[in-house]
């Protein structure tokens, strides 16, 4: 299996575990996006792999998009990031084998969207462990593909309400609104994910693939979009002078 700079990959009796391993908080940048695209392409065609768990570190799944990197990117870097990130989302949603997300900690915004590509999500309990779309706290645009994925699960009206309030959900609340399927103590998240993924792996693969395709038609439609056209829109948003000013203030606040 190839080496990745932002992920670790292990294989145990046909079950692959992809662990996000990129800095302190697993913020998504171009390198991670490229690695996610590549690893799910490789796992899809590897006959030795029957199912996949996507996991993070204890108390941290993924902090979302690397806003610092976006704020300091030039236009070409910005376009490259969103091209690779949206392409990775397409690859993960289209992945036809069982995929279970083990949310080992907080997973706001882009981290939430990564988890929502999976067939089943198990989330760690804890006050700081939250999912949801909090971009409006910084007047950040939510790209259409991300918005459509979130709305697939929450419905448009509820998704729009969540976004307006930058509403975040802990694991128990996330179960109630359908963003995750189970809430577990941190040390039980991966074992429960393994258990569930192995259950799915017992389904005859052609049956699983076909049924997954049928029952996620709306999610597949959400990512069946022209990435380049969406990147054009995102680039326009980032050219807005008010947005640039807010990004500059954000960078200054971190220095």
From the N-terminal CA to the C-terminal CA, the straight-line distance is 39 Å
Low-pLDDT parts are: none
Give the helix/strand class.
alpha/beta
How much is the average pLDDT?
Answer: 94
Q: Work out the strand percent.
A: 15-25%
Sequence-ordered SSE layout with sheet pairings:
Blueprint: E1 7-12, E2 15-20, H1 30-45, E3 51-55, E4 59-60, H2 67-71, H3 75-93, E5 99-103, E6 105-108, H4 110-116, E7 120-124, E8 131-132, H5 144-154, H6 156-165, E9 168-169, H7 171-177, E10 182-184, H8 186-201, H9 205-215, H10 217-223, H11 227-238, H12 241-254
Parallel strand pairs: 2-3, 3-5, 4-6, 5-7, 6-8, 7-10
Antiparallel strand pairs: 1-2, 8-9
What do you see in this structure?
The structure is a single chain. This protein is 53% helix and 16% strand. It has a 6-stranded mixed sheet with strand order 1-2-3-5-7-10, with helices on both faces. It has a 4-stranded mixed sheet with strand order 4-6-8-9. Helix 3 crosses helix 11 and helix 4 packs across helix 5. With 255 residues, it is of the alpha/beta class. The protein has 12 helices and 10 strands.
List its salient traits.
single chain; 255 residues; alpha/beta; six-stranded mixed beta sheet; four-stranded mixed beta sheet; globular
Summarize the structure.
With 255 residues, the protein is of the alpha/beta class. The protein has helices spanning 30-45, 67-71, 75-93, 110-116, 144-154, 156-165, 171-177, 186-201, 205-215, 217-223, 227-238, 241-254; strands at 7-12, 15-20, 51-55, 59-60, 99-103, 105-108, 120-124, 131-132, 168-169, 182-184. Strand 2, helix 1 and strand 3 (51-55) form a beta-alpha-beta unit.
